[in-house]
Amino acid sequence: MRGAIVFLAAFVIFLVVTIGYQDLPPGRLVYDTLGLPETFDYDVLGLDASVLIIAIFNGVVYGVIIWFIFWLLEKVGVIPKGKQTVVITKE
Fold it and tell me: What is the largest distance, in Å, between two alpha-carbon atoms of the chain?
């Protein structure tokens, strides 16, 4: 569960950063490699659709990278695993 939170936090951070700076790699590279057309006349939530797609690519890529680093550090023991305790009560 903590890994999902780490991924979502990284996704949102890089999504916002990329909206402000569209040339952040690898989003633009992926967008150009897929051959998607530039859509300057089509707005989604007040942004160009191509900018939003590039931001989503960057959010996913950097989110996965940061989640993987978190997962490795947790497996090695640098980050302690969250222990869940179960309390059973009789009524």
Answer: 64
